[in-house]
Specification:
Layout lengths: L4 E4 L9 H14 L7 H7 L4 H8 L5 H16 L12 H10 L3 E6 L3 H11 L7 E4 L10 H10 L6 E5 L2 H10 L3 E4 L6 H4 L6 E3 L5 H6 L3
Parallel strand pairs: 1-2, 1-4, 2-3, 4-5, 5-6
Helix pairs in contact: 1-4, 3-4
């Protein structure tokens, strides 16, 4: 069955931000006089909310030190001079096609509200979204709450949605909510890693999504 609503993750799905996120975490750790985490360790955690990522990267750090690290990360990442918000080339054409075809579009992201609002403003995509939610408002992925929130707001059941994301956290969030999901192998997790979580398909690029949807009965 074709979905009514398509719920997009942001980082790694719509925006080419995986490497900027990794480098920002490493710079933040160094600024706090902490050893910089390994790139692959950070990559595996992208999609969780910021406190969860920091807790995994620095499990022995005290609460106040974790809060300071989060503040440093946010200051780096939200700095207007930090030009690390670039959409994939296929993102806008994909969104334009889906909107023209009558699909409802929404965002569920591990970003906080300030980061998401800045990203939407910077990329000029506000007119695409009927609703958005983020990890500063709902429990972090893979909890199903973000899907439930968007469905409640728009009067739909999870089975009437399709989640699109680049990590197993996105796919598991969808499964936990009872929603189908499609992966795109453009972000933090490889196609091999994505195979380990429930999915309808793994796409190489967002440009493939309209054709995939056209093939659903």
């Amino acid at each position: 069955m074709k979905p009514k609503l398509i719920i997009f993750d942001w980082d790694g799905t719509l925006a080419d931000t995986t490497n900027p996120i990794i480098s920002t975490f490493q710079a933040s750790f160094q600024e706090c006089a902490l050893p910089a985490p390994d790139s692959e360790q950070i990559r595996g955690l992208i999609g969780y909310n910021l406190p969860t990522i920091i807790r995994h990267l620095a499990p022995d750090l005290g609460e106040r030190a974790r809060e300071e690290l989060a503040e440093v990360y946010a200051a780096h990442y939200l700095n207007p001079n930090n030009r690390n918000m670039k959409l994939f080339d296929s993102a806008i054409p994909c969104l334009q096609t889906l909107k023209a075809q009558g699909y409802w579009l929404a965002v569920a992201t591990g970003k906080g509200r300030t980061g998401l609002d800045n990203a939407i403003a910077q990329t000029g995509t506000a007119d695409f979204w009927l609703a958005t939610t983020c990890a500063s408002e709902q429990p972090s992925k893979p909890a199903p709450d973000m899907v439930f929130k968007l469905c409640d707001e728009l009067g739909l059941r999870p089975s009437e949605t399709l989640v699109v994301g680049d990590t197993t956290h996105d796919l598991e969030m969808a499964a936990n909510a009872g929603a189908p999901a499609v992966a795109v192998a453009t972000g933090a997790h490889t196609a091999e890693h994505l195979q380990t979580a429930p999915h309808l398909a793994i796409l190489h690029d967002l440009s493939e999504l309209p054709d995939f949807l056209a093939g659903l009965s």
